[in-house]
Design brief:
With 474 residues, the protein is of the alpha/beta class. It is 39% helix and 21% strand. A nine-stranded mixed β-sheet has the order 3-4-5-2-1-6-7-11-12, with helices on both faces. It has a six-stranded parallel β-sheet with strand order 15-14-13-16-17-18, with helices on both faces. Helix 10 packs across helix 13, helix 11 packs parallel to helix 12 and helix 11 packs across helix 16. The structure holds adenosine-5'-diphosphate. The site of adenosine-5'-diphosphate (ADP) has 17 residues, from helix 1, strand 13, strand 14, helix 13 and helix 14.
């Protein structure tokens, strides 16, 4: 089976969060199952590729009422081919956060079929991810000047986070993508604007999200960010597939970032990792250490945790906070670090190596998310013998068993978190706690089973398309 995976980020080349991790791991897992995979992603100025991709030339894309050129760089890794799309739109400091993001990713999306064709890659199915590439199914259905074989190809859209939707001016999007005006009345239209994610929900052959519980939640107004009605409407082509974890990168037995490696059968090393981190940050290593490793965004409920800090310290926890994001939360963390220098240490910024060390050093990881499509940090924590204390939502529900491999609380407020933290603190270092750690570390979160589910879904889509007698190849 030939699969084209399109994404705005792909680890280790680019990453701001879980999307990058998922698209970094799924292709190799699919390749191991015998699939031929091409991953197409932007060639950011900050792309982490050494040696850099091999530049193989330009392609012409119909865009913005005209044509434009985009460069292609390729490389191979782990049996997967990667193509990076180069354009001045991506020569910036950050991946996202610009006023013209929708236009940037419309251009990227429109380049994907042309890039694949240039590489002689005609996929059986195209798998797009989040709003940045969600317009591709619509382009495949209605776009013109598509390479031979691409019009009407079946597609699957994975929603990693429904909060980000790619909203903009409807007329502009139609003009950029050179789409017919009749599409004003299509799934592209949402409350008077263009909505890239909703267009993907409507036009993709199948839609998945990253956990079964989140798939249920986003059909409700509380979690659906105004797309709950659309999710209910497409429920006959919508399902949840739990993410896996890249267990080669996240493995305490072989993690090169750790002062001391350890495993479920040899957990002693964890203590030394804690000692090293605590000494470096002037924390008393005898107290249980509760960590946070998170984007500082409303979704993650870090404000809930910060409000609970006095209560957590009173319970007897020391805290380590690693995160970056909203300036007001960063300031709040700085203030707390200054107020409780002996009990709370923090690092503001995105630091992959430190993240590994904190997962290894902490006793527990707080995840007070308001919503969590899947979440990787709880899986990483469990693998590192660090028990998650998490809000019972989305993928956290599907991966953590309360009082067995972690602790869950229902209400996204300081009282909820403090309730679960006090429960955890009571167990800390007891034989029950150690047994929980063993069970958590033994959980299988590998990509193998997740990739199998995607494979089965691709297969089902292709079979259904065949049954409807729509020619796959033109
Ligand atoms: P999301 O994708 O919503 O941010 P996930 O839990 O799915 O949340 O994935 C978060 C990933 O980003 C994890 O691998 C986590 O370790 C990492 N991460 C988050 N914040 C930081 C940070 N400040 N420094 C290093 N890694 C971070």
């Amino acid at each position: 089976m030939r699969i084209l995976l399109a994404s705005s980020e792909v680890y280790p080349f680019s990453k701001t969060g879980g999307l990058g991790d998922v698209v970094g791991a799924l292709p190799e897992a699919l390749a191991k199952q015998g699939c031929e995979v091409l991953v197409v992603s932007p060639w950011y100025r900050t792309l982490k590729a050494l040696p850099p991709p091999l530049w193989i030339g330009d392609v012409t894309i119909p865009f913005d009422g005209n044509y434009c050129q985009a460069g292609i760089g390729t490389l191979e890794r782990g049996g997967v081919r990667y193509a990076f799309v180069g354009h001045s739109d991506f020569q910036r400091d950050d991946l996202y956060g610009y006023d013209d993001d929708l236009k940037r990713f419309c251009r990227f999306t429109r380049a994907i079929p042309q890039v694949a064709a240039r590489l002689d890659f005609l996929p059986d199915i195209i798998h797009v991810n989040d709003w940045q590439t969600a317009l591709l199914p619509l382009v495949l259905e209605h776009g013109w000047h598509l390479p031979e074989g691409f019009p009407g190809l079946p597609s699957i859209l994975t929603v990693h986070n429904v909060q980000y939707q790619g909203v903009g001016d409807l007329e502009e999007v139609l003009y950029w993508l050179r789409l017919p005006g009749a599409l004003r009345e299509s799934y592209l239209h949402h409350f008077g604007s263009a909505n890239a994610l909703q267009a993907g929900l409507g036009f993709a052959t199948w839609v998945t999200t990253v956990s079964p519980t989140y798939a249920r939640e986003i059909k409700t107004p509380e979690f659906g960010y105004q797309l709950d009605g659309t999710f209910r409407h497409i429920s006959n082509k919508f399902s949840g597939i739990l993410n896996g974890l890249d267990t080669n990168i996240w493995n305490p037995e072989s993690d090169p970032h750790l002062p001391r490696r350890y495993s479920v059968n040899n957990p002693e090393g964890k203590r030394e990792n804690k000692r090293t981190l605590c000494r470096h940050h002037h924390l008393d290593e005898r107290l249980p250490l509760l960590a946070v490793i998170s984007r500082l965004a409303e979704q993650k409920g870090v404000d809930i945790l910060l409000e609970a800090v006095p209560g957590l310290l009173a319970q007897g926890w020391n805290l380590f906070l690693l995160g970056s994001g909203e300036a007001s939360l960063e300031r709040w963390i700085h203030e707390l670090s200054a107020t409780y220098p002996e009990r709370l240490a923090s690092f503001i910024g995105f630091d992959e190596e430190l993240a590994h060390q904190v997962y290894a050093a902490a006793d527990a990881l707080a995840i007070p998310s308001r919503f969590e499509p899947c979440g990787l940090s709880q899986m990483i924590a469990m693998r590192y013998g660090t028990l998650p204390i998490a809000r019972a939502t989305g993928g956290l529900v599907d991966t953590i068993e309360h009082q067995d491999t972690g602790f869950l609380f229902l209400h996204p407020n300081p009282e909820g978190l403090l309730w679960a933290a006090s429960l955890a603190h009571r167990y800390c270092d007891s034989p029950t706690w150690k047994a929980m750690i063993r069970r958590a570390m033994a959980r299988d979160f590998s990509w193998e089973s997740a990739a199998r589910r995607y494979y089965d879904r691709y297969h089902a889509i292709l079979t259904a398309v065949d049954e409807r007698d729509i020619p796959l190849y033109r």
